[in-house]
Amino acid sequence: MKTTFCTNKEEGPSVSSQDRTGSRGSAKAKVLALVGTGALLLTGCSAEAKRGWLPNVERDTTNHTAAIQDFWVHSWIAVVVIGILTWGLMLWCIIAYRRRKTDTGYPRQLSYNMPLEIFYTAIPLVLVLVFFSFNNTLEKSINKPVDSEVVVDVRAKQWSWDFNYTYQGTEKHFAGTQAHLHTDGSEGAREELPTLYLPAGKSVQLDLNSRDVIHSFWVPAFLQKLDMIPGKTNHIYLTPQVEGSYDGKCAELCGEYHSEMLFNVKVVSDAEFKAQLAKMDDGHIGEEYDRQPNTVNGVVVEHGEGE
Questions:
Q1: Buried-state track 194-209, b at ≥16 Cβ within 10 A, e below 16
Q2: What is the dihedral of CA 273, 278, 282, 287, to 10 degrees?
Q3: Cα 108 to chain center, whole Å?
Q4: What confidence score (pLDDT) does residue 294 get?
């Protein structure tokens, strides 16, 4: 008996992944070229780009700014590398496994690779845990309480700042008044703003309090910002290391004149710091000047007949 085998020439070639990969060596070369180009571009970055466009001009403005800057920049480098790798693999799959003109029918619709699926599920989880670990370590080191040489009780109020200093057994204070922006848009006088003086090279503890509503203490060059909440004291521990003048502001919308709640920070020598303290009034202006809504609302006003 003669057996005949029939073929269907119209069916065309089957869809096979092995036929779609192209030149693996060429793909690797392109990826290496892309990475090399990125590294070359990074070496030619400006000073602003090297610090990740953070507002601290000096790397060691405080004892914390270098670590914060490094964490910020390295995080972005890691994210960009992961993004390029992910986008590159997506683009490669789109091109390598695209449908050819000679293809007929449909590729296999139900297909999976268990090791690969475990891999691309575990890797993002590991990345998140690594980021969390570095961030947690840095945050703990920044917020670790320090037996500071200078303690400043910073009290925010609508819309200015009071500074109470404790240094070498001496208590001094500065009571700030609200700054006023010029109605014509011209630049105001910085000298009229409340000024927080800090000695360079000495550990400082900032006790952050609010006299009325929620404010936020922010000196952009210090790379630290913390809320100021009525009835709760938050703390910032740092050591200013570079003398100079820095801008400060409230970073929490706190009412009509929030934009005018500005202050200066001047990091000066120890001798200049002592000279500035000598010009200030003695003692502290503490919580006795805070707004006390419970006390005010608790007052019962008796009205006479006919009132």
A1: bbbbbbbebbbbbbbb
A2: -20
A3: 47
A4: 67
Tell whether 4 is covered by a domain. no
Task: Tell whether 106 is covered by a domain.
Answer: no
Domains identified in the chain, total number? 2
Residue 61 placed within a domain: yes
Residue 154 sits in the same domain as residue 279: yes
Quick one: tokens of 244? 């100079």
User: Hey, is 288 helix, strand or coil?
Assistant: helix
304: Cβ–Cβ under 8 A, 6 or more apart, which residues?
Answer: none
Flag whether pLDDT at 269 surpasses 90.
yes
The parent domain of residue 251 ranges over: 150-180+188-283
DSSP string, 169-196: TEEEEEE-------TT-----GGGS-EE
- The pLDDT tens digits for 17-39 are 444 445 555 656 665 666 666 66
Task: Specify whether 163 is located in the same domain as 262.
Answer: yes
Q: Is 13 helix (H, G, I), strand (E, B) or coil?
A: coil
Same domain as 160, residue 97: no
